[in-house]
Design goal:
Layout: H1 2-21, E1 34-44, E2 51-58, H2 60-63, E3 76-83, H3 86-92, E4 100-102, E5 108-112, H4 113-117, H5 121-129, E6 138-142, H6 147-152, H7 161-176, H8 184-191, E7 199-207, E8 225-236, E9 239-244, H9 246-256, E10 263-267, E11 275-292, E12 295-311, H10 321-350, H11 357-364, H12 366-372, H13 376-381, E13 384-393
Parallel strand pairs: 1-4, 1-5, 5-6, 6-7, 12-13
Antiparallel strand pairs: 1-2, 2-3, 7-8, 8-9, 10-11, 11-12
Helix pairs in contact: 9-10, 11-12
Amino acid sequence: MRVRRYMSISVLLAIVPVVLSMTGCWSRKEIEDIGFVLSIGVDHAAEEGEIMITVHIAKPFAISTGVAGAVDEKPFWQVSSTGHTVFEAWRNLRQQSPRRPLLHHSRFIVFGEEFARGGIREAIDFFSREGEVRETNTVVVAKGVKASEVVWNEFELERMPAEGALGIMKIAVQELSTAVMVTLNDFLQILEVEGHEAVASRAELVRRPSFEDPRGELKRETISVSGRETGAAAFKGDKLVGWLDKTQTRGLQWVKGKVRGGIIVIEQLETEDKLASIEILRASSAVIPKIVDGRPFVLIKVGALGNLGETQEYFDPMESQEIWISMERRMAEMIKHEIQAALDIAKYEFNSDIFGFGAEIYRKYPKEWMKLKDRWDEEFRKLDVEIEVETSLRRSGLTRRSIQVVRKEED
């Protein structure tokens, strides 16, 4: 009898947690009540001391092509809200949205140039604390315009602007290496690292003539404003200090070991105004800090493998091995040129260590870094940097000669 009583108590104790777990979720959110934000922009508001956020929200009922009339309707909604802080502006957005906006699916956090030059520390604190924000968001700075204008832009071939921007950015980063893609997590970490300044993605607008105001339209006939993802935004601390163009950005990526692809154009040997295109297949790099006579010194080693993709003049690689060697040498010279372009603008215009040389010195020579860190701005500007580039061309691309056009006499 006593055994049965104990068994009954054991069964009861096992059932109670199961029953309690089936009572539902008090904090559940029905999908019909949610507005999924795909990108958010931050600017100064018209009212002094206030912040304006602009969000791009998906319209689920207009995305599905199976709904009658949904194909012609714009599948997103952009709206702005203001407040004294980003958090207040975010909450005030609920006064305009019939659905509760959520940031779980956000892809981009965009800062206007004017706002970024004044410092983004206070604004970015919201994104680091807000539990809805994923740290995989890409940090973007809008060049020459407000973030709201970038959030407003659209793209051909993609119905959702955020998807179009993401597609262009991936191509620029992976296939061209002329842009950077920096996540919120990476950006926040670099802000706290000694001897390393942050960079972010750079977004520009491509304007097309239009006589219509796109706001409030349900159906879009033409796209008047589109976007372009290229180059990078350089920071010093939490403030934007300048821009890197495509060449300078790829120079930065060579140093950081993040070149994934791209085309290098060189002059052909013994030809005037004729060019050859080399495809970047693989690349690697190493940054080696040294202390020489009490002074910091950095050696950059880059290795690259390429493939001949095009020549503008007749070319027979089997004639001489000197042709191969010459093309590899010119490829290395172009890589050095790109790295030097990035070094020059970072050292002499921005005075911002976006390469992380200081962090590398700190990692290898912590005692020496303690003597350097308080004057790193001065030391970085006069830092000696040596660049070594080793290149090779895949021989399979050199086994085929160019087409030799036969000169024919005119009648």
